[in-house]
Amino acid sequence: MPYRNAETLLPPELVAELQKYISGELVYVPRPPQRRVWGEKNGTRERLRLRNAEIRSLREAGHSVDELAEQYFLSSDAIRKILYAKPRPAEA
User: Fold this and answer.
1) pLDDT digits (tens, 9 = 90+) for 65-83
2) Which of 14, 54, 67, 73 has minimal Cβ neighbours within 10 Å of its Cβ?
3) Measured over all CA atoms, what is the biggest interatomic distance in the chain, rounded to whole angstroms?
4) SS3 89
């Protein structure tokens, strides 16, 4: 991360205020929090939530794990993980 002079970036009033607390030291200014949850931006998370709810519903309707695996192009183990996972609050 390159060094940048506050006097070239900030208004003079802000530089004066900062100098009350620190002077001649390097200070890291973190970015504001903006991290999104995986799959939130492109909708993947929601599509998987809906698919998993559909898989649970079909299982309750009597479809076998092997049928679901074939229908959704997943392994039987992946289907079992979906079926036995605790639903998250948004899924309930």
Assistant:
1) 999 999 999 999 999 999 9
2) 73
3) 71
4) coil
List pLDDT tens digits, range 36-64: 888 888 999 999 999 999 999 999 999 99
Rounded CA separation 88/10 (Å)? 44
CA 37/CA 48 separation, integer angstroms = 14
The CA distance from 49 to 62, in Å, is 20
From the list 73, 68, 44, 71, the residue with the least C-alpha distance to 83 is 68
Distance (Å, whole) CA 31 – CA 11: 19
Prediction pTM value: 0.59
